[in-house]
Amino acid sequence: MGKIILCSGRKAEHPFYFKLTNTNVYSIEELCYYIYNNIYLIGDELYQPELADWLINEVKMNEIGIKLKEYIQNKHSMKDIVVSILCSADYYTEDEIIELIKVIDEIALLSPIRRLKLKADKYINYQNYSEAILLYQEIIGNKEAAVFTEEEYGNILHNIAIALLNISSYHEAAEYFESAYLRNKNPESLMQCMYTLILGEDSERKDRFIKEHNISDELMSTIYQKIKDAEEKAIEASSYKEIMKIKELKDAGKGNDYYQKINQMLRELK
Length: 270
What we know:
This is Tetratricopeptide repeat protein. The protein has 270 residues and is mainly α. It has two domains: 16-109, no CATH class; 149-269, no CATH class. The protein has 14 helices and two strands.
């Protein structure tokens, strides 16, 4: 759905801010693009009277702004609001809008807990890790989580681990990666768990994990090589200051922050 955003309408002096994704939009075209590409996440934000006011006052689109206010007051469906906004600009074709309507209808047929998972997944994509963890924890604490397969449940635990790496402890993240692997049997969860244990210098848990999951010497060599490649990539980085910053994290005993930097590079090497 990638598009170059060519704005033919008025550009706002003050943007409309979508708090959940930390995104500013400055035109009706940018608003349409945001809605189209975040349909799994968007919801209550479209029901804000401030959005209608922004359309009227900032981009001077009185007709759609007034219509949006009426829709909000009369509690129209999200589909009505989305279609009205998209049709107010010539950014998406009729066929593209029809396809999006189908997606909205499909979302409406999902169970509440599956819709919640889609929202949490989007938060991960936007690196809004705190919100993602809250939603994932709500999911796994709900009896309705029984609808997920073992693999799906394991993937939820994997995503919690990813989020924890960025805001909490790699020790806690390792526990979730291991729990994820036990359910989804995904090599990615296994590899991430090993990266976490090695870079976290948790030798006891690492040795136990290797033994319990019969990890071969060949795979361990691959894992260590990937870590080495990531560290070499840091050394070859264009910014010497950034290199030293990463090194200082390790020297200062800030293993979690050091791991986050290296783990990011490991993902980029794949």
